[in-house]
Structure formats: structure tokens, C-alpha cells
Amino acid sequence: MADSLVIVESPAKAKTIGKYLGSKYIVKASMGHIRDLPKSQMGVEIRNNFEPKYITIRGKGSVLKELKDASKKVKKVYLAADPDREGEAIAWHLAHYLELPQNEACRVVFNEITKQAVKDAFKSPRRINQDLVNAQQARRILDRLVGYKISPLLWKKVKKGLSAGRVQSVAVKLICDRENEIKAFVPEEYWSITAKLASGKTDFEAKFYSIGDKKELHNQQEVDEVLAVLDKASFVVRDVKEKERLRNPAPPFITSSLQQEAARKLNFRAAKTMSVAQQLYEGIDIGSEGTVGLITYMRTDSTRISPVAQEEAKEYIIGKYGASYYPETPRNYVRKNANAQDAHEAIRPSSVLRDPDSIKGYLSRDQYRLYRLIWERFVASQMASAVLDTMTVDIAADSVLLRAVGSKVKFPGFMKVYVEGNDDAAPDAGDEEKLLPPMKPGDKVSAKQIDPKQHFTQPPPRYTEARLVKALEEMGIGRPSTYAPTLETIQKRGYVAIEEKKFVPTELGELVIQQMAEFFPEILDVEFTAHMEEELDHVEEGKEDWVQVLNEFYKSFEKRLEVAEEEMEKVEIQDEVSDEICEKCGRHFVYKMGRFGKFLACSGFPECRNTKPIIKDTGVTCPNCQQGKIIERRSKKGRLFYGCDRYPECEFVSWDKPVETPCPKCGSLQVEKRNKSGTFVQCTKCDHRVEVEDQKD
Fold first, then answer.
1. Across the beta sheet with 678-683, what order do the strands follow?
2. What is the pLDDT of residue 338?
């Protein structure tokens, strides 16, 4: 008979842990939080030290009864929710409901769900950490105060159903500010000159570096001056610099860097990354080894690695690649970010010996791809640096100086396993080799072609999910558990839309931010919001009282509310009317903004609920039926693709954007593609491919 009850959040986690603990333990799931603040009211007694009024979450009655009944049949109850503030709060609510003694050592935490880690955790249960609970309560109440006090104002003055949130408002403001920067941006002209040169029988490229003291070319006249010099000059090698350069691996993943890299390399949304990571953490059945958690806890801002994991990685790397691939001393990644809580380890495989290919057959495609990303990043983070031989050659042509830069990998080190992606079009240094022929000062080289190109500076790019998460982290806004929910919320509220995988503010979003900026500037202030996050961290560390933190905030916030109630003017959002007529009722369609961008809706809503997408013609004739036009479409999940407008008669589809110009080699359809090296046009039938220049930011 079982003599202990263990309560976790999810059935998957319960199943994995139950197998490790054996028949003396009953393991059940609470299905997440069991109590929360009520939705129908504030649920916080502001004048009574912000006392929260918790109620049982609707639908949890049967789960709670089952847990209560089970707790009466055992000698001991263990609460094994996730090892963070949310998990601590869940454990605290469960202890309250099950009437466990206040000083009971009932809390069990582990950073990875493996047999050894779980068994070790049960050897040393602890009391519930009230500081952690208070930090979670303070955040929840803080967000409730902002949401339930400002939202009714927005309903009254702007539009029903709106909401305001502390972190989400800052995220929307960042997106609005970026859009304003783009609108205000004035392009500046600049030119580049690339010379195709030859040393002996080897061709190579050199770029304009300077003419006299001038290093930048701003117009055609300046370019013509350079070309005139190059036309008459002989090209002589002035200087050759060769040196060895070390390149170090990226640290193991934390929550934000995992979300960024999964977006770059796997095209995962932040929410999808966290969902798949949760599955890997809670446990996968991998055959003879049984169900095992494949990664450590995925909500973390720490890059710390346990000595046991480091030693295992060392043995694996030396055994697989040789001693030269392991650094002289083990790598330790200390976070310089003062906001990092360092509560857990970095995200890593629970055992490096489970290489991705050995368990591929047990994982879904998404699970395999994310696990492989985490595994490779961790292994690479423990490996030796790469060694690159770099060569810089300055070539003089009278008063013009050209510069050629080449590199080759002398020793791949960690790059043998993994190279970090980046958000820019240009390949990262060392990703590809650019070899130069041997040269020495005084050598003459011949010019085969001089290619001047006009460019214009580009505005700052709109935020992708990866860029926005990075910005929020760098500014100290939010914490590991908040990034994905924040991005989801601002889309669901209609404050932003996604166009070409980038955030665009809606008219509604811009309007709400304008009102918030006028009446609640501190809510939108990055430094203020980051300071509040630090205050919550201090509560968690036991350095500050949570009620005092809320009091300090509410003093000025209450005054702002009074002013806004009196002075905020009512704003009416007018829908933009289109020329198209609704075929069902004869009224005009109007433009609306949904989470996947603009669409057409009947102005007779709610009597007429007719909607349809806005057709964007690519100007390309369908290669399949030769009659229809290829137009932009969206999948049910909002992903952009291209299809024939004669669907379903013609079923042509493409994930890649069609190009108007047919392939010069075979006449077939060409599409635009993109990889880490930039954008290129590729024929869909033959091997014809042309690089497309990515202009400088």
C-alpha cells in the first residue's frame, strides 16, 4: 500500500515521476493552479494590505476532491510543482487547501526529471518558501491592479473589451516606437565599389576602403572620382596582415536565448518553443530506458551548469572528438546581467549521452528538432574555441586603397557541433571560408572588373518575436515565464498584428498606447517597469516586504487614475470603409485588424457576420493552370503562403514568394528564398539561382 501522495501539475509529469518512485507513492496532478483571483471582480482588498481574495478555479472541484480524498489515506503529502515562483505558489495553495501544517517539510523540487534527480530530491524535502510565494502574489496583484483599474477606463473612453497590462503595455509601446522610427526614417545614399582582382591565376575580391582621408562615398560624383583613378592606376599590394583569431562558443541556453534561436533556426513561435520544451522536460518514453525527462527546467535565466553535467560533457567530447576539442579548463558562464536570478541551471540535456539521433525514433519531428538544438548548443558550449586564420590585404591604386579580407578555419573546435545563428542577413564570422591567394607587399595584381553599386540606408527592422524577446530581456522587462504569454496576449487583444513574421502595431494598439502615455506614463516607462521587476526579485530574496512594494506603487498610481477619470477624452475608432460590397447584405465591407493582419468584415455586424481575406495579387500567373493569378493566402495558424486564385479548381501552393521574372535558363517559375547568408531567387525546376543584395540597416 502507498503511504505517500505526490502532487505535480500535469498528468505527463505525474506519469514520469510515478515510474521512478514506485508503488509506495501515489502521484497525482493538480492540472496547474487550483486557486486564483476571481475574474468578475478585483479580488484584492486594497485598504487591507492588498489582501487577495482567492477562489477555487472553475472546473477544479472534482480534481480537488480527488486530491483531498487521496491525502486522507496516506501518511505524507509531497508537493512537487515546478521549481519557480509559479510552482511555489501552486504548492502553497495546495498546502492551504489540504490543511497541511504550516511548517511541514512537504516541498520537493528538482531541476530535471530523471530517476536520480527525483530520488535525490525526495531525500531532502523542505518547507514552502514564503518569499517565493509572496513574490508571485505581488506580481499577480500588481498586474491585477493595473488591469482592473485601467481597463474599465479604456472601455469607457476608447472601446469595450480592451485591457491594459504592465508588461504587455511596454511590449506594445516598443513595437509602436519602432514603427514611428520607420515612418520618420529618411534614407541616405551611399555607394560601394567592389573590385574583382587576380593574383596569378587566382581571382579574389577587394572592396573600396578609402581615397585620401575619405572612407565613405555618398554620391555618383564621388564614385566617378574613384573610378577615374582606378581606371589609370596599377594595383600593388601595400600591406598583408595575417593573424590567428579565437572564436568562443555561445553559452548554453536560457529561456530567452532558446526562444530566439528556435525562431531563427526552426521557425518556432515563442509559445510553441515553450510547449515543446515542456514535453521534453516532463518526460518522453524512449524505449528500454523508459520515460525520462530529456532536458532540464526550461524557465530559467541562469547559464550555470552543474559539475556532474560538466564532467559528463567532458568525457563525451574527449571520447567522441578527441582531447584537443576540450578546453584546458572547464567553461563557466557567469551571467553579467544583474537581472538574472540564477535560480536554476541553464537549459541542457539531462544526459549528454542521449544524443539526438539515438532517440530520434521516439520523438515527434518538433520534439527532435528542439532537443537537437538544445543538445548541440550545450555540447558546443563545453568545447574548445575555434581557431581561424585571418588575412587582411591592403591594395593601393594610386590614392585609392582597396581592402580584401579572407579567413579559413584552422581548427573547428566547437563549430564542429554547432554555430549560433544571428538576426542579420550577413553570415556570422567564420561560418564560411573566404580564401585569399598568397600575397606579399610589393606584389602586383591585375584588375578584371570594377563594380560600383548604389545603396540606401534602411530603417531599423520591425520586431520579430526573437528580436522583441531579446529587447525585453536586455531592458529587464519580464522574466523567463512571461515572454511567451506576453507575445500571445498583445496579439489576442488586437494591439499588434504579424506581417511577414514581424510585429506591426494596429490602429487600436497605437491609440491605447497614446492614452496610456498621457495618463499612465510610468506604466510604459521601461526603467520603471524594470525597477518593478527588481523589486519583485528582492521580495523573492526576502529583502523587501511585498505589501510595502505594492503600497509604493499604488500611491502614485491611484492619483493617476483620478486624473485620467476626469480628463481622458472619449475617442471613437472609425473603421476604414472599402470599395467592396458584401455579397450577402449589400453593405460596404470595412477593414478590420485581426491577429494575423488586416481582413474585410461587413459593416452590418452583428446582423451580418460576413468576412473575407484581403486579396494580395503577386502579379505572377499560376504555372500550374496558366489561367489564375498567384495570390497571398494564410493557413489556419496564420502562416503566409501563396496559392492560385482559382482554388479549388487549381491546387497550386507555395510557401515561398513567387517572382514575376521567369527563369532565364528554363522559363519556369522562380521563388524568393532566404537563409542565414541572405536572400536569393531560386528556380523551382532547374538549378538556376541568383543572390539578391540585402541592403545595410
1. 657-659, 670-675, 678-683, 689-692
2. 44
Please give the helix or strand (H or E) that residue 344 lies within, else none: none
Report yes or no on 296 lying in a domain. Answer: yes
Phi, psi at 243, each rounded to 5° = -150, 165
Does residue 297 have an active-site annotation? yes
Residue 341 maps to a domain: yes
Q: Which residues pair with 301 in a beta bridge?
A: none
Name the residue with cell 553599386. Answer: 453
465 and 402 co-located in one domain: no
Task: Tell me how crowded residue 291 is: count the other CB atoms within 10 A of its CB.
Answer: 18
Question: What does DSSP assign to residue 345?
Answer: P
Look at residue 689 and tell me if it is in a domain.
Answer: no
pLDDT recorded at residue 288: 85
Q: Amino acid letter at 651?
A: E
Q: How many C-beta atoms surround the C-beta of residue 485 within 10 A? A: 16
| Residue 510 parent element (H or E) | helix 507-519
| Pair 87, 105 in one domain | yes
Cis omega (within 30 of 0) on the bond before 485? no
8 A C-beta contact, residue 74 and residue 5: yes
Number of structural domains found in the chain: 5
In this structure, are 85 and 162 located in the same domain?
no
d(CA 281, CA 285): 12
Measured distance CA(649)–CA(239) in Å, rounded: 65
Q: How far is CA 110 from CA 123, 305, 399, in A?
A: 11, 14, 67
CA 671 distance to own-chain centroid? 27
What is the domain range of residue 558?
A: 137-184+461-567
Residue 489 has which C-alpha cell? 496576449
Give the pLDDT confidence of 563-608 residue by residue, as tens digits.
998 888 887 767 778 888 999 999 999 987 666 667 889 998 888 9
Beta carbons of 293 and 347 less than 8 angstroms apart: no
Asked whether residue 434 falls in the same domain as residue 338, the answer is no
On whether the CB atoms of residues 608 and 587 are closer than 8 A, the answer is yes
DSSP, res 214: B
Q: Note if the pTM is more than 0.70.
A: yes
Residues 147 and 120 both lie in one domain = no
The upper half-sphere exposure of residue 257, i.e. CA atoms within 13 Å in the direction of its Cβ, equals 20
The answer to whether residue 623 is domain-embedded is no
What is the three-class DSSP state of 396?
strand
Note the pLDDT tens digit of each residue in 154-204: 888 877 777 778 889 999 999 999 999 999 999 999 999 999 999 988 999
Together in a domain, 30 and 81: yes
For position 447, which CATH number holds?
Answer: 2.70.20.10
Kindly report the CATH number assigned to the domain that includes residue 20: 3.40.50.140
CB 438 within 8 A of CB 242: no
**Domain match, 259 and 376 both:** yes
Q: Are strands 55-56 and 284-285 parallel, antiparallel or unpaired?
A: unpaired
Convert the pLDDT of each residue in 617-635 to its tens digit.
888 999 989 889 999 887 7
Say whether both 482 and 586 belong to one domain.
no
Give 436-453 as a 3 state SS string.
CCCCCCCCEEEEEEEEEE
Quote the CA–CA distance of 378 and 394 in Å, as a whole number.
Answer: 39
> Last residue of some domain: 381, 415, 433?
381
Of 20, 54, 190, 297, which is the active-site residue?
A: 297
Q: How many CB atoms lie within 10 A of CB 534?
A: 13
Instruction: Please report, for the domain that includes residue 492, its CATH number.
Output: 1.10.460.10
Domain final residue pick, 429, 456, 483 = 456
Phi and psi, residue 262, nearest 5°? -65, -30
How many angstroms from the chain centroid is the CA of residue 644? Answer: 32
Quote the CA–CA distance of 326 and 47 in Å, as a whole number. 60
pLDDT at 416: 94
| DSSP symbols for 590-645 | EEEEETTEEEEEETTTTT---EEEPP-EEEEE-TTTSSSEEEEEE-TT--EEEEET
